[in-house]
Amino acid sequence: MTSTTDAIDSTDNPALPDRPTSLARRRAALTAGIGLLLMAVLAPLAHFGVLENLVVSGDAATTVGNIVADEGLFRLAIATLLVVTFLDIVVAWALYVLMKPVHPTLAILVGWLRLAAPAVFAVALANLLDVANLLGSAGSSALQPDQLGVQVMASVASFDSGWDMSLAIFGLHLVGLGYLLFKSVDFPRFLGVLVVLAGAGYLADTFAIILVPDFEFTFSWITFVGEALLIFWLLWRAIKGFPSETESNGGQLTEPRLAEPSTVAL
Q1: Where are the domains of the chain?
Q2: Which residues pair with residue 54 across a beta bridge?
Q3: pLDDT tens digit string along 163-180?
Q4: I need a labelling partner for 125 at 20 to 30 A (CA). Which of 3, 51, 76, 199 fits?
């Protein structure tokens, strides 16, 4: 007498052991969503709310006067932007956890690009700290006003250039991330397309500054939609879960492999 046993053998699928658990993916989505949301609030407040008001393009004397009058606020803006770089590192890790099942190699590259962008930005940010230290030190009184103004504006210009370079790297990161989102079943394809466009916008802005200095149009002002929607979808997935939680191979639909029928002789 013989009997046949059919069972799902998950150990036959090599993709399953490396796949993050449902809880881990939700936590990663929540971490990335909250991190991006905080960055979306803090960075504009520091840059447009503080720095843009203190730094007057082409007017060194007014810029120096503004920073000296509000040195504490200027330093707070620097500290806020430094926090943004820390958040970027956390977001890079969380997005890697989410995108690794889709394409491990590309997810690593995209993650490193996300880490490279804040690294470049942190170097640029040091220029603003130089300005704060220069204007807040006794040594600034030894400089002539014109010399002081030139040095301050040169440091501010270096900061702007460094930020532009970091945005180009960040844009390349978004292009790769958008591709991964497009290939994943956990996110809508239109989101991947919009994130790619957001990255292309940053790249276009930086290359326009390099190649056409007088070009005033900012592409990223109209291509940022993908970034905003990404925050929403990350938080949504953190709450509702992922469609591929019962699937394998990075969101690709695969049928569970069945063990070969075994014959038991009695």
Answers
A1: 18-242
A2: none
A3: 999 999 999 999 999 999
A4: 199
